[in-house]
Each structure stands twice: as C-alpha cells, then as structure tokens.
Design a protein that fits this description.
With 371 residues, the protein is mainly α. The chain is 69% helix and 4% strand.
C-alpha cells in the first residue's frame, strides 16, 4: 500500500536543497585550497595536495548522492538491521590493534594510508536509519519508559560507548544529540528527558574528569590566554583569524593565520580562515546556505508520506545542523574544542562522502514529499 502510494507521489527532488548543497561544496573546495596551500607546499611540495583530494572526495560523494537519490528510501527501512550490524562490526574492528589506525590520538580509522574510512561516520547514518524504523514501528510505546524510551536509549548509548573507546567525543556528541532529537519528536515524554539530562550531565562530567586533555580543553575554553601556547593555542589563533576579517575580509587567499599559526586550518577550523579572508559577509553567506538546507530539510520531513520518512529526514537534517552548530561554536570560542568538522567545507573523505550519501537519501524523500 505504502509503496504504491509513494510511486504515485514520485517527482523531481527539491531544487533549493540541491542548490544549497552544491554551493556549500563549491565554497568548500575553494576554501580547502586557500586554507591548506601553504601547509601542503611545505609538507608535500604541492599546494594543491589537499584541494585535489577534496575535489576527488566531493566528486565521489556527488556520484553517491545522485545514486542514493534514486534509491527509494523504503529500501533502507527493509535493510536497517543489516546496516546497523555492519556498522557495529566496523566499530569493533577499529578498536583492534593492527586493524584500526591511530590519528590525532584516536583509533578511529580503518584502511591503508590516505585511503581509509571512519566507522563512526557510518554509524551515525546507520543508527539514524535503524532508529527511524524502530520509532516508526513503536510510536505508541515511546511514551513508556521501559517499552519504548529505554530500548531506544540503550541502543544509542551502546553505540556512543564504542565511539568513546576510540575515543571520539565530538562524533559521539553529534550521534547522541541527533538520536535524542528523533526520540523527542517521535513523542517521548519530557519527564524522561529531564531525568536523562541529569544523568547525562553527571556522565559528561565523568568523561571530562577521566581524561586530562578534556579538562584542559574546558579550562582553555574558559580562559584560553592562561595557556596561550598549550591548550588555548587553537582557539586563540582562531579568534586572531576571525577578528581581522571585519566586514569584507582580507581577500581570498590573503589569510595570515594559515602561515603555520592555526594548525591544519583546512579541517576543523576552516570557518576561521573563511571569516578571515571573506569577512562577515562571507561567513554570513555560508550560514544562510546552511539555514536554507535546514529549512528545506525540515519541510521535507514534515511533508514525507509516512512516519519512517519523516523521522529519517529529520535525523539527517538534525545530524548536519548539530554538527554545524558545534563546529561554528568551537571556532568562535562559544564551546570547548571538540574536533568536529564543518559539513561540506572541511577537508575529509569519510565525513564528506557520508554526508553527501545522507543528503542523497534526503533528496529521495523529497521526491515523495507533498511540498
């Protein structure tokens, strides 16, 4: 019944959503080159080293996006359990010495050299798909703590636990935040979230205390100038980039902070370089493009023909939005440093490709939505 209904509603994907995605991708490739050219020349004797790879990742991601856009989203409902099992297998595998690769102090990668994947990125999408199905099938039970809320929460916490063993707090926070949003929208009681919030704060405090570097990030956030060459270095250099940008910026390619001041500016802190070179106007343009993506994504979620499609669309949009909010907050000094990339703009293969696959699913849902 539902499959025949969605076939009848088949149409072209949301055009404004596609425009926002391609605009962000274009800005991302340009800014990755601008931010990384100096470091790439020094380390690889090739100013286009990171830009060429970003272009390759973007091209592969676009192909995947259009492929996913043409796969009926109900296909993911039927294979959600299999996808989740595969994601958990990858999360376990990455923790095995000799299988998982250590980068930046975290064992988060599987692969060889530059050609590697980050299982936690796959888990974000896999869990969103499975949770969308579970919540759609058990919507009447979600108000019950033991029959609906607790099973959903337990699954999310198991995935979060495996990610924290790497450790990767940033990705874990995005995953938990996205899943909690989906559970809340599906009808969970606010009282359950209040109790969960108290436990969550206690657990978060425990995670911070258990790792000295996390405590250093908190103290650096409160007063980065207390340790300007240590824990506070990144945020200070980020603010030094944003401040001189002013209204119009210093001009594309004219950043000073990318000259070995801001570490690897093409990744987590690319927005700081963008604000330095393109100013308040450039930064606002990027934020407006993200807002356009959020607006169209929410419209797709509200207009989807079934509960699974609505929750799946909401999960994808929520994942991207939460990641953007955390990244921009870190770069501007509103949050402690967490190590989260800016979707579509930051350099990276797994994150960019999986994000484009996710929006491919969102575009497919938009083909059936009654906009």
């Amino acid at each position: 019944m539902l499959q025949s209904r969605t076939k009848q509603l088949h149409k072209a994907p949301d055009l404004l959503l596609i425009i926002a995605i391609f605009s962000l991708l274009l800005i991302g490739v340009i800014m990755v080159y601008s931010a990384s050219a100096i470091w790439a020349t020094y380390k690889f004797d090739d100013s286009f080293f990171f830009a060429k790879r970003q272009l390759l990742f973007a091209g592969a991601g676009i192909v995947a996006m259009f492929g996913f856009m043409n796969i009926p989203y109900l296909t993911w409902r039927n294979s959600s359990k299999t996808l989740l099992i595969i994601c958990f297998i990858l999360l376990v595998a990455v923790l095995i010495p000799g299988v998982g690769m250590v980068r930046g102090g975290a064992r988060s990668w599987i692969g060889v050299g530059a050609f590697s994947i980050q299982p936690s990125e796959f888990m974000k999408l896999g869990l969103i798909i499975f949770l969308a199905r579970y919540l759609a099938d058990h919507q009447k039970k979600i108000t019950s703590f033991t029959k609906g809320f607790l099973p959903s929460l337990s699954l999310v916490m198991v995935a979060f636990g495996f990610i924290m063993l790497q450790p990767d707090l940033g990705t874990g926070v995005v995953l938990v935040g996205t899943c909690m949003l989906m559970i809340f929208v599906s009808g969970a009681r606010i009282a359950h979230f209040v109790g969960l919030g108290v436990l969550g704060l206690a657990g978060f405090a425990g995670l911070i205390i258990s790792a000295p570097y996390r405590m250093q990030r908190i103290t650096a956030f409160l007063n980065p100038w207390e340790d300007p060459l240590g824990a506070g270095f990144q945020i200070i250099q980020s603010l030094y980039a944003i401040g001189p940008g002013g209204l119009m910026g210093l001009g594309l390619g004219q950043s000073l902070q990318k000259f070995y001041y801001l570490p690897e500016p093409q990744t987590d802190f690319i927005f700081a370089i963008l604000a330095e070179e393109l100013g308040f106007i450039g930064g606002t343009l990027v934020l407006l493009l993200f807002f356009l993506l959020l607006w169209r994504g929410i419209r797709v979620a509200l207009s989807a023909p079934d509960t699974f499609g609505s929750l799946l669309a909401l999960g994808i949009v929520g994942m991207i939005t939460i990641q953007v909010m955390i990244n921009i907050s870190v770069v501007t000094g509103l949050m402690p440093v967490t190590g989260i990339t800016l979707p579509f703009l930051s350099y990276g293969g797994s994150s960019l490709t999986l994000t484009l696959c996710s929006v491919g699913i969102l575009l497919n849902i938009s083909r059936y939505a009654k906009l």
